[in-house]
């Protein structure tokens, strides 16, 4: 079977749960046609570089797929008729990268490097009343 990386952008109007359900539907479709999804990453609601069908944001997902070509072709056919899907792209790769993608790795790194923010009551107040 061939190895693929697949990126999907869904409309901003749907909920994160609906975006996850779309991923699960594609996983079930691939598995029913003899393939296997090695990894699914939901990247969340992200800004688009330019508007697509009047949307400024989209729900991004990445899938690592090990499936025969007809299964991927059927998945792409299903996505092309789904109104919630803005764009998708499937690329054949030599081997699957099962590590955390740079998008999620950067998000996790940013969260761990960020210093603790003081609570609202803990901040020093500037006394401008005297001026």
Helix and strand succession? EHEEHEH
Question: What is the helix content?
Answer: 25-40%
Mean pLDDT: 85
Q: How big is the Rg?
A: 20 Å
Question: How many structural domains?
Answer: 1
Task: Label this structure with key terms.
globular, Alpha-Beta Plaits, alpha+beta, 4-stranded antiparallel β-sheet, 32% helix, 131 residues, 4 strands
Describe the overall structure:
The chain has 131 residues and is an alpha+beta fold. The protein has one domain (2-95): Ribosomal protein S6/Translation elongation factor EF1B (Alpha-Beta Plaits). The chain is 32% helix and 37% strand. The protein contains 3 helices and 4 strands. Strands 2-3-1-4 form a 4-stranded antiparallel β-sheet, covered by helices on one side. A hairpin with a 2-residue loop joins strand 2 (36-52) and strand 3. It starts with a strand and ends in an 18-residue tail after the last helix. The model has no long low-confidence stretch (mean pLDDT 85).
Can you describe this structure in just a few lines?
With 131 residues, the chain is an alpha+beta fold. It has helices spanning 16-32, 69-81, 102-113; strands at 2-11, 36-52, 55-67, 85-93.
